[in-house]
Design goal:
The structure is a single chain. By secondary structure, the protein is of the alpha/beta class. 31% of the residues lie in helices and 24% in strands. A nine-stranded mixed beta sheet has the order 2-1-11-10-12-13-14-15-16, with helices on both faces. Strand 1 and strand 2 form a beta hairpin. The longest helix has 17 residues. It is globular.
Length: 528
C-alpha cells in the first residue's frame, strides 16, 4: 500500500489560490528587490493594503531582509499615515492601488522621501470585497510589486538575525489617541522560539491545519497569527472583507479548524437567522480565538453555544503581548472574566501610586508580559514610567476576583464622571447588549449643560429587522441600572465606527456633541 504524499499547503483568497512554496519564492524574490532598493536591517517599511495573498508575501519579503514591516490601518487618513511615516522614519511604502493617493498625500505632509511600490488589485479581490472595479487599473505612477519580483529571479538568501530585526517595532491601534510605536529590544533566539511555540500551541496552529484569516491583516494579532501559520505550513484561507455568511460558508467548505475573531464578528454571526446558520457545519473548528475588544456576557454565552469548547479568549496589549487566557468552561465558572495570567505574565490592580487594591475593587490594570517577552520603549519617547517595577499600565481598568481572574470594566479615558461619581460604560453596554434586538452598542459621556459634568449617552445598532426604540431600551434597563447610570440620550443608529479589528472609535461619536452642549436634553434627537 502506497501512502498518499503530503498535501502542499496553499493560500486562498476569494477565487485565487497560490501554493505555499510559490508564496515563499515570491516573498524571497521580493526580498532581493528590497535589498537592491537599499533597505537595511531595521529599516521601517509601511504596508497599506487590503487582505490578500500579496499582503503576506510583502510581509515575509520585508522580514527576510531584516526590514521592519509596519502594517497601516486602511481607514486612516493621510495625516494619520503621515504621523507614522515621520515617527518611524519610513524608507519604503507598499500600497494597494486604492491607497496610493493616501500614501502619496501622507508622504507630502510628512516631507518623507520614502519610495512607493504599488500592489495591483485583481478583479477577483475587488469583486469579493465589493469595491470599485476601476481600481483594477494601476495608477502607473510608481514601481509595481510584480515588476520588482520579476526583476529578481533569485530569492534573498539567509540573513542572520533578519527575523528578529523584523519584529523591532509595531504600532498601537490609536483608538484613544495617536498610535505609538512600540520598540522592542532585540530578542534572543530562545525568546523568538518561545513566543512562536507558545503562540502556536495556544492558537491551535500546526502544519496542514486549515486556518481562516477573518480579521484585518493590518492589525497585529491577525497578522502575527497568519505569518506564523504561513511559516508553519498551515492551509490559509483569507477573507478580503468580513461578512458573517461568508465566514460560515468558508468554515464549512474548507473544514476550517483555527480562526481568530472579535466580539463584533460573533454578534454579526448571531444576527444571521438560526435556520440559515444551521445549514453550515462548524464542527471542524477546534480553536476559535477572540480578543481585541470587550465581549458582553450575553454575547459570550451565545458564542459558547455556537462554538463550544473551541472558544478561547485572551487579553493582551502591543507592549506586553498576551497576558491572560480563559477557556469556555472557565468563563462559565467566572462569567465576564478575560482569564488568568499565564506563562509567567502577571496582573495587578493598584492605584496610580502602585498601592495594591482589594479583591473586587476597580482600579488600573497593571500588567507584565510573559517570562520570554522582550522589554520595550516607546519609539522616540523612551520607556514608560511605572510605580511598580517591571509592570505597565496601558489605560485599562478592571478588578480581580478571589481566584485571580481578571475582569475589565473599560478604558480610563472612557469613564463617565457625573457628579463626581465614576460610571463605567462597559456595565451599561453589557446590559443593553443582553437585549435580543441589539447587535452592537457604544456608551460614552457627553457634556452636560448643568454642573454635574457629563451625561451618559448610548448609540445602539439593532439587529436586522428588529423593532427597537429608545423607549424600549429604557424600559428594559429600568430596575437593572441605578438611575444615574441610565443613558440620558439614546440614539438608534445604522452603524458604529469600529475598525475591522473590533475596536470602537468613541471619540468620533463624541465630537458631534461637543458643539451641541445645549442639545435637546434627555429627549435627544429624533429617534432617541
Amino acid at each position: 500500500m502506497i501512502d498518499n504524499p503530503p498535501k502542499t499547503p496553499t493560500l486562498v483568497c476569494g477565487n485565487r489560490t497560490r501554493t505555499q512554496p510559490d508564496v515563499l519564492l515570491r516573498a524571497g524574490r521580493l526580498g532581493s528587490a528590497i535589498l537592491a532598493a537599499g533597505i537595511d536591517r531595521g529599516d521601517k517599511c509601511v504596508i497599506m493594503a487590503r487582505n490578500d495573498i500579496e499582503f503576506l508575501e510583502v510581509s515575509v519579503g520585508i522580514a527576510a531582509t531584516g526590514g521592519n514591516p509596519l502594517p497601516i490601518n486602511t481607514r486612516w487618513t493621510a495625516s494619520e499615515v503621515a504621523h507614522v511615516l515621520t515617527d518611524a522614519q519610513v524608507r519604503l511604502i507598499f500600497a494597494h492601488t486604492e491607497f496610493v493617493p493616501v500614501v502619496e498625500a501622507a508622504r507630502e505632509l510628512a516631507g518623507c522621501p520614502a519610495r512607493i511600490v504599488e500592489i495591483a488589485m485583481t478583479q477577483e479581490l475587488l469583486s469579493e470585497g465589493g469595491w470599485d472595479l476601476a481600481l483594477a487599473e494601476p495608477t502607473g505612477r510608481h514601481d509595481s510589486l510584480e515588476d520588482w519580483i520579476a526583476a529578481h529571479p533569485e530569492p534573498v538568501g539567509h540573513i542572520d538575525g533578519a527575523i528578529v530585526r523584523s519584529m523591532g517595532v509595531i504600532y498601537t491601534s490609536g483608538t484613544t489617541g495617536k498610535p505609538k510605536g512600540v520598540a522592542r529590544e532585540q530578542m534572543t533566539p530562545h525568546q523568538l522560539l518561545s513566543i512562536a511555540g507558545a503562540t502556536a500551541q495556544r492558537m491551535g496552529l500546526a502544519p496542514g491545519v486549515p486556518m481562516l484569516v477573518a480579521g484585518p491583516l493590518y492589525h497585529t494579532s491577525p497578522n502575527a497569527i497568519a505569518v506564523l501559520g504561513l511559516r508553519m505550513g498551515a492551509d490559509i484561507v483569507i477573507m478580503p472583507k468580513w461578512d458573517a455568511r461568508t465566514f460560515l460558508r468558508l468554515v464549512d467548505h474548507h473544514r476550517i479548524q483555527q480562526v481568530k475573531i472579535v466580539p463584533t464578528m460573533v454578534s454579526r454571526i448571531v444576527s444571521v437567522p438560526a435556520e440559515i446558520r444551521a445549514t453550515y457545519d462548524l464542527s471542524s473548528l477546534t480553536h476559535v480565538i477572540h480578543s481585541a475588544a470587550p465581549c458582553p456576557p450575553a454575547l459570550k454565552r451565545a458564542a459558547i453555544e455556537l462554538f463550544g469548547d473551541a472558544l478561547w479568549e485572551f487579553y493582551g496589549c502591543s507592549e506586553a503581548g498576551t497576558i491572560t487566557w480563559i477557556s469556555a468552561a472557565e468563563w462559565l465558572d467566572h462569567p465576564g472574566s478575560v482569564g488568568r495570567a499565564t506563562d509567567g505574565s502577571a496582573v495587578r490592580i493598584a492605584d496610580m501610586q502602585g498601592n495594591a487594591l482589594p479583591v473586587g475593587e476597580i482600579g488600573p490594570v497593571w500588567v507584565r508580559g510573559a517570562d520570554y517577552w522582550p522589554r520595550f520603549e516607546y519609539l522616540n519617547h523612551g520607556a514608560p514610567h511605572s510605580p511598580i517595577e517591571d509592570m505597565l499600565w496601558v489605560g485599562d481598568l478592571g478588578y480581580l476576583d478571589e481566584d485571580g481572574f481578571l475582569y475589565l470594566t473599560g478604558r480610563d479615558a472612557e469613564v463617565v464622571i457625573r457628579g463626581g461619581v465614576n460610571i463605567y460604560p462597559a456595565e451599561i453596554e453589557n446590559a443593553i447588549a443582553a437585549m435580543d434586538e441589539v447587535e452592537d452598542v457604544a456608551v460614552f459621556g457627553i457634556p452636560d449643560t448643568g454642573d454635574l459634568g457629563e451625561l451618559v449617552a448610548a448609540h445602539i445598532l439593532p439587529r436586522p429587522g428588529a423593532d427597537l426604540t429608545a423607549a424600549t431600551v429604557r424600559k428594559t434597563l429600568s430596575g437593572q441600572l441605578a438611575d444615574y447610570k441610565m443613558p440620558a440620550r439614546i440614539e438608534i443608529v445604522h452603524s458604529l465606527p469600529r475598525d475591522d479589528s473590533g475596536k470602537i472609535y468613541k471619540q468620533q461619536i463624541r465630537t458631534r456633541y461637543a458643539a451641541d452642549i445645549s442639545g435637546a436634553g434627555a429627549q435627544g434627537r429624533p429617534g432617541s
